[in-house]
Amino acid sequence: MNKNKLTLRDYLLMALISVLFGIIYLLAVYAGTALTTVLTPMGLGILGYEPFYGIWFMAAIITTYLIRKPVVGIVTEVIAALIEVLLGNMFGVMVLVSAFIQGVGVELPFTFTKYEKYSYKMTILSAFSATLLSFLWTGFRSNYLAMDWRIVAAIFVVRLLSSLFFTGYLSKLICDKLDEAGILNQNLDTGEVNE
Amino acid sequence: MIDAINPTVKTIGILAASILLGLTFRWEINLIVALLCVFFLLTSSRTNPATLLKAMLPIALISLSYFFTGWLFSSEQAQFAASNTAAVSGGGRDVVNGLTLGTRILSFAMLGISYSLTTDAKELVASFIQQAKMPMKMGYAVLTAINLTSLIQREHENSKLALQVRNIPVKPFDTKPLFTMLVRMIRWSERLSLAMESKGFSEDRVMLLQMTVKRRDILFAVGLPAMIVALGIIFV
Predict the structure, then answer these.
(1) Can the keyword Membrane be found in this entry's annotation (chain A) (predicted)?
(2) A32-53 confidence digits (pLDDT tens)
């Protein structure tokens, strides 16, 4: 396991990637809002954002893959949330809690392999644990106990499918392509300034 | 009023208030908290009506969608709780359940925008570094990214344009421009860190902006959650 402290370059990479994904998140928010509007009269508006939920975990898994140090996924999610809050996110400080929980969810499977394995199996496990933890948190926030169990089950299934696609498959595919392009580890390992 | 509260203390106060609000299940409490947040926003010099209106539209839509879900798909447990707390019967219990869920999301969102629209970015990062012991590197990385947001957006558009001039179609969630941008972000992080460190950036950096915690900040951080606890006791 790489136990070196996070460097300024690591933090900058996490912050820049967070902003980049902020642009993608915005597209997902527009799409989710449109879907929510269509589904609201049927009482299914709560499912509107769920097909895009996996996009919110992508920044954390990509930086974990790129930097390969402990807590990178959590820090990335928190930085992304902080940037979202400062740009006026409507859920404000609660986004920081959501981000921390999502970061833990994304990172959890990697801790068991000491941040050494980055296979599809790992990213799919990561997608599953992020979905599970985020589901428990949004369950508390949105009081799922007050809803019909079929709606709650639909929320979980749609979120899991989204997460498996965006986090488990697409993020890994992008990272592998970055690896093939030859800009990964050797680039990030050279010239690190450790304090 | 809320503008002057220390950002770290404001974070703690609003976070505690939000968690306590999550433990209450009464629409009356949600509505009181939402109205209090409207007061915070109207008395803030950092919030302009146009921004507030723009933020309120998605909040109203999401609250409405939760109302409909709570109304049309309420659980038996929720109906039982509603019949214990309100003089309603039959379909009315579902409406109360919908109202509770809709106002719950509304109050969370109102607390959220009371925080995000009334907090200055530089003050928040300075306060997190000084009071919450956030690493200097992390704080400045956040500020750098915020300052580069419009540039990153423009570069993302350029990446899409570069593909389009080669007659490669770009769909809304296409990974091709994203891939180009990720390569650029790796390069930028390397160059920016070199630039910052060559100018002497380190954890020992002295900050011009000094944030302090005053008595009124503590009063806010304790008062807001205490008010929600008190409302919870009143409406039991």
Answers:
(1) yes
(2) 888 988 898 888 888 999 999 9
Nearest chain A alpha carbon to B197: A8
Residue B189: domain span:
136-198
> Does residue A193 lie within any of the structural domains?
no
* Cβ of residue A33 closer than 8 Å to a chain B Cβ: yes
| Paired residues of B74 in beta bridges | A147
The verdict on B114 and B167 lying in the same domain is no
Q: Which of B196, B204, B206, B211 is nearest to B141 (CA)?
A: B196
Residue B97 is assigned to a structural domain of this protein: yes
Q: What's the pLDDT score for residue B85? A: 56
Q: For residue B119, which residues of chain A lie inside 8 Å, CB to CB?
A: 85-86
Chain mean pLDDT for chain B: 88
- Which of B62, B138, B179 is facing A11, going by the closest CB pair? B138
Residue B234 in this model has a pLDDT that exceeds 70: yes
Domain CATH code at residue A174: 1.10.1760
Residue B167 has pLDDT above 80, yes or no: yes
Structural contact between residues A13 and B186, judged by C-beta atoms closer than 8 angstroms:
yes
3-class state of residue B130 by DSSP:
helix
Taking CA atoms, what residue in B is nearest to A148? Answer: B75
* Beta-carbon contacts below 8 Å between A and B: 224
